[in-house]
Specification:
The chain has helices at residues 2-14, 46-58, 64-68, 73-86, 99-112, 128-141, 153-159, 182-191, 283-299, 301-323, 350-359, 383-396, and strands at residues 32-33, 93-95, 119-123, 144-148, 164-170, 195-199, 218-221, 236-239, 329-330, 342-346, 362-363, 365-367, 371-375. The protein is α/β, with parallel strands linked by helices and 397 residues long. A 7-stranded mixed β-sheet has the order 2-8-7-6-5-3-4, with helices on both faces. Strands 9-10-13-12 form a 4-stranded antiparallel β-sheet, covered by helices on one side. It has a two-stranded parallel sheet with strand order 1-11. β3 (119-123), α6 and β4 form a beta-alpha-beta unit.
Length: 397
C-alpha cells in the first residue's frame, strides 16, 4: 500500500496541471469526487460571476442586454466550444437546448435530409436518451431501427446500406469508456451515402476531437460534465458547414428565424448554425461554461488528455492491486488509446457499496447491473484523491 501511496504522491508532484485543482470549489466532507464525468465541480469563480451577472447585465441593463450581447451568446459560445474542444471552424456550433432535444433536432433533420432512405443505425448499448429519441423518431416517421450489438467499424460496415439515412453512435461509451473509431466509422457511413450523428457527451473536454478534419456531419454534446457548466447547462449541436443550407430545422422557433423581432407571418431560417435554435436560449446556463472554456484553452486539450490517460491508468493499477482480490473486474479497455476519461469497475455488490461510499464522502456513480464508474475530470482531480476513493471501495468490499 505504501508503494501505491508513494506513486500517487509522485504523480501529483509531477503533474503540470496540478495548480488548476485550486480553482474549483472544494466540498467539506468529500474525500474523493469520482463523478466528474456526470457533473463537474463548479469553478470557485462561478459564484462571483453569477452575482455580477445578476447585478450587472441582468439587474442593471435588464432587457437591453438582449440587444447588447445575449442574442449572440448561443453562437459565440458555440464557436468557443468548436475552437477549444471540437477541432471545428466557426459558424457550425450552437448552444441551445438539452442533449435530448438537440439529439432529436439533428437526428430528425438528418433523416429528412436523406429522402427515400428509411433506416437508422444505432447500438443497443448507447445511453437511454439516444435510444429513446430514435425510437420516437422511428415511430413518428415509419423508419426502421437497425440495432448494432456492439460499436465497431466492422459492425457498422455490415449494417449500413443504400437504405441507411442516419447512423447515431457515441464517441465514448458511457459505461465502458471505450472510444469508437470516429474517422473510420464516419467514412464507412459516408461510403453508403448515410449521415452520421456523434454523441460527444463523454468525450468533449476529455478527448481531443477533429470534427472538421474527420468530415463529421453532425454532433451533440453536453456541457455539465468535463465543461463544468452546472446541472442542466445547455447542450451544443454541431452541423458541418456543407450541410447547414441542406438540413431543415424540425422545431422551428422564433429564435432560429432570420429576423426574430420581425414577428413575420412565416418562418425563414437564420443563416448558419443559428437556424438550429428554437426558443429563447438559456443565458444563465452558459455563464459557468464560459469560464471553464478559458481554463481548457489555457491548459490545452493535449495536456488534458495526457492527464486523463495518467489518471485512468493509475486508477486501473490501483484497482488491480486493491480490488481484484475482492472479485472486481476492470471493464474498460486497458489500452489508453481506446479509453476515454473514466474507468468502469464491475462487482455484484456495487449497488450497495456505492450507497455506503456516498455516506463516507467518496462519490463515484453506479450503473446497472453491476458497474461502479470512476469518472476522473483532469483539471479538478488528483492522484491521491483517486487512491483515497478506491481504497474506500476496497474497505467496503
Amino acid at each position: 500500500m505504501s508503494l501505491i501511496a508513494d506513486r500517487a504522491s509522485a504523480l501529483d508532484d509531477a503533474d503540470p496541471l496540478a495548480s488548476y485543482r485550486s480553482l474549483f470549489v472544494t466540498t467539506p466532507g468529500v474525500v474523493a469526487y469520482l463523478d466528474g464525468n456526470s457533473l463537474g465541480r463548479p469553478l470557485a469563480a462561478t459564484g462571483a460571476r453569477l452575482a455580477e451577472f445578476v447585478g450587472g447585465a441582468w439587474g442593471d441593463r435588464l432587457i437591453r442586454s438582449w440587444d447588447e450581447e445575449w442574442m449572440d451568446w448561443p453562437t459565440q459560445v458555440g464557436d468557443r466550444i468548436a475552437s477549444v474542444c471540437l477541432g471545428a471552424a466557426p459558424g457550425q456550433v450552437v448552444v441551445a437546448d438539452s442533449t435530448s432535444v438537440m439529439l432529436y433536432k439533428l437526428a430528425r433533420a438528418a433523416l429528412a435530409g436523406r429522402p427515400g432512405r428509411t433506416e437508422i443505425v444505432a447500438d443497443t448499448g448507447n445511453f437511454p436518451t439516444d435510444r429513446f429519441v430514435l425510437e420516437g423518431i422511428a415511430a413518428e416517421t415509419g423508419s426502421t431501427l437497425r440495432w448494432l450489438p456492439a460499436v465497431s467499424l466492422d459492425t457498422v460496415r455490415e449494417a449500413v446500406s443504400e437504405r441507411t439515412a442516419l447512423v447515431l453512435l457515441a464517441h465514448v461509451d458511457y459505461r465502458s469508456a471505450e472510444i469508437a473509431d470516429l474517422p473510420a466509422i464516419t467514412a464507412a457511413a459516408h461510403a453508403a451515402g448515410a449521415l452520421v450523428l456523434w454523441d460527444l457527451c463523454h468525450a468533449v473536454g476529455a478527448v481531443p476531437l477533429s470534427l472538421d478534419a474527420d468530415e463529421v456531419d453532425l454532433a451533440v454534446g453536453c456541457t455539465y460534465k468535463y465543461l463544468n457548466g452546472g446541472p442542466g447547462s445547455p447542450a451544443f449541436g454541431y452541423v458541418a458547414a456543407r450541410l447547414l443550407d441542406e438540413l431543415r430545422q424540425p422545431i422551428q422557433g422564433w429564435m432560429g428565424a432570420a429576423d426574430p423581432f420581425a414577428m413575420g407571418p412565416s418562418y425563414q431560417p437564420a443563416a448558419g448554425a443559428r437556424r438550429f435554435l428554437s426558443g429563447t436560449p438559456p443565458i444563465l446556463g452558459m455563464l459557468p461554461m464560459r469560464e471553464m472554456l478559458t481554463l481548457v484553452e489555457q491548459a490545452t486539450m493535449t495536456a488534458i488528455r495526457e492527464k486523463s490517460v495518467a489518471l485512468t491508468s493509475f486508477a486501473i493499477r490501483v484497482a488491480d492491486e486493491l480490488l481484484t482480490p475482492h472479485g472486481v473486474a476492470v471493464s474498460s479497455p486497458r489500452d489508453p488509446d481506446r479509453r476515454g476519461g473514466h474507468v468502469m469497475l464491475d462487482h455484484p455488490s456495487f449497488r450497495e457499496v456505492t450507497a455506503r461510499l456516498w455516506q463516507r464522502g467518496v462519490i463515484p456513480d453506479f450503473r446497472p447491473p453491476t458497474g461502479l464508474r470512476v469518472g476522473l475530470s483532469p483539471l479538478s482531480t488528483g492522484f491521491a484523491e483517486v487512491l483515497a476513493g478506491l481504497t474506500a471501495v476496497a474497505d467496503e468490499l
